[in-house]
Write a structure and sequence with these properties.
Elements: H1 11-37, H2 45-54, H3 57-66, E1 74-75, H4 78-94, H5 102-122, H6 126-129, H7 134-157, H8 165-170, H9 177-196, H10 202-218, H11 241-253, H12 260-263, H13 267-292, H14 298-314, E2 321-322, H15 324-332, H16 339-354, H17 356-359, H18 364-378, H19 393-409, H20 411-428, E3 436-441, E4 449-450, H21 453-461, E5 466-475, H22 477-487, E6 496-507, H23 509-523, E7 528-532, H24 544-550, E8 559-562, H25 565-579, H26 604-611, E9 615-619, E10 624-626, E11 634-640, E12 643-648, E13 654-660, E14 665-666, H27 668-672, E15 680-683, E16 687-693, H28 694-701, H29 705-733
Parallel strand pairs: 4-13, 5-6, 6-7, 7-8
Antiparallel strand pairs: 1-2, 3-5, 9-16, 10-15, 11-14, 11-16, 12-13, 12-15
Helix pairs in contact: 1-2, 1-4, 1-10, 1-15, 1-16, 1-18, 3-14, 3-16, 4-5, 4-7, 4-13, 5-13, 5-14, 7-18, 7-19, 7-20, 9-10, 9-18, 10-18, 13-14, 19-20, 22-23
Amino acid sequence: MKTGKNYFGNLSGDFLGGTSGLLVALPATIAYGLMCFAPLGPQYSSMAATGAILGIIPICFLAPLFGGKKILISAPTAATAAVVSEFVAELVKKGNVPIDVIPVYVTMLCLFAGLLQVIIGKFGGGKFIKYIPYPVITGYLSGLCLLVIIGQLPKLMGLPNEINLANGILNPNYWKWESVCIGMVTIVLMSLARRYTKKIPAVIVGLTSGIITYWIIALVDPALRTLDNNHFVLGDMSSSASAIITTVSHRWSLFSLINSDTLKTIFVPGMTIMLLLSINTLNTCINLDSLTFSHHNPKKELMVQGLGNIASGLFCGIPGAGILTSSVENLKSGGKTFKSLLFVGINGLIILLLLGRFVSWIPLPALAGILIVVAISLIDFSVFSLVKYKSTILDFIVILTVVIAAARLDLIKAAGVGTLMAILLFLKEQMNATVIRRKIFGDQIFSKKIRLDFERDILEDKGKQTVIIQLHGHLFFGTTDQLFTKLEPYFSTCRFVVLDMHRIQSLDYSAANMLKKILVRIGENNGCLIFSAIPEILSTGQKPKKYLQDFGLLQNPGVKFFDDLDTTLAWIEDKILFDEKGHTLDDKKILDLHELEFFKGFSEYSINAIEKCIVEKDYYPDEPVFKSGDEGDEIYFVRQGNIKIVLPLNAGKQLHLQTICMGAVFGEGAFLGANTRSADALSVDQTRLYVLSRDKFNRIANLYPEVTGTFFERLALIISKRLNQANKELKILNED
């Protein structure tokens, strides 16, 4: 009997996932809300906290309707808080907007940012966001985090509003020991939890420890047991549906007071918020893709986020973006479907409408401590390693410049500085050059190992498991997305992805990070990323292999490094043949004449005839079988081991031509009449050969004419196959 969808499947898992994700997001969300309206004074704290929670609820109800990522929890972020706080502070400083009207401008800012996200998503603007250089994003976010830390230090120390931070730090008399104790306990325990436990989210540990510390202090300080004139806690958060509706209605009634000239001020911060939230959301989606083995739709995600932020703005909420920590907690706790997001929204409403009195007692120093820990964790301290390399020093300068601009000027001007630096960085590189020189599959090109026919058949059959990407030029932020896009179709279809780095000219920080993402995507399907022929040093002085090693790629078990493409192909071929059980020769076995592929199909009569004129010889590793210029007329059959054929070059160098594997034949040129050897033949390991000279073979030719015909026919077939394969590979390697 056919049944419909089970809409109640995994209900408990989704409930636990959504609830846990909300609890992880809530403390920082409230703190970000307070930061947004901090320039207006403590009397707006309750409104700020309510707006922060309202920033979570709408999108959690909208995402299931419009097809956003199933477990993606969105909430106000540090980017939101920093930009909005800067925007509010600027309006307060100018003094041309009444204080009670400023929240209306924040609502307009939220609506504008959401509208921009919808437009950008609708027209595929997400792909342009990916072209923002990583150093610019890192610098901007690091500067933003510094502003968050600076903004929370007064709350951590309990400084009076009229005391600036510098004076407060230099004069401990202004500090409130209660704030310092609560904040420091929160910071220390949250930091320890992040490092030593994964079972309980660190933000929950931090908030709980801060609340416990507050009530321990309250045992000896009766003033902390009441909300009246209590500057250590959030304050009265008692809310009801009617109160929220009244607040929303009042704010919308003030829209008539908006000055059209002042309204222009929302354009730049609105663009800034849109970009930061979009980047945050898309990066979170990429990380969730690797955890859930799925693939997000950037266009749809931006549109859903934009609609959610518009809905949040309509209810006087604060714009947000996808939060990785909360979304991961949702997944870890059992959330798998859209129902987990519905539970986030439902529980958010319950907290807002029914549990506001409990939220009122959250200590402000604890929230400040949480924000400081989160901000520190978001600063990318690895950027200091960029100073070590001449090729990446400009990346470091970009990051440092944007950080200074954000901290010393303001976030809006920092956005302009970042844009300018991005253009300079863009001009520095060859933006229009393609980074992919050639793409070849494993059934089009083979290693220099001479394989037996049945082995070659297996390798041709499994050839599409391997793709070789020959790179050239500059691997930098302008070409990394090109590389990722070209490789993406092969992440799920190819077992081996080879990047031939022989012709690269530079490798920057963005490229290294993109290679990490490529590794993650290949690893999702148990594939292997292989780097071939990475130059020891480039013309710029950069050492790319060491550079990748510093990024941790060399130590990853899913990555292989080989000195040249031939060694890479040989390893892949050996791996494929090894995995095909029963399709490889036992290298410990010594083949008899009738077991050699060359003599398959020869009659017993013919085998006995040839055995009469054949000689057995053994060679030690690295022992020469013959050298270039030697006279000889022998043909060799490998019974055991491997023979390496090399062409001597000037200055003692060699060119590797072929490796003759067990069961194969070599030396046919001299046997057919070219008595002078044209290359060296060296034993790779302990090797046993059958040796047949042309002189002895001629002695039996007249006695056994049928043997002679079969022998030369087989020899001609082998030579023809090798020439045909060589022609195919030459054609492929010379095609653009």
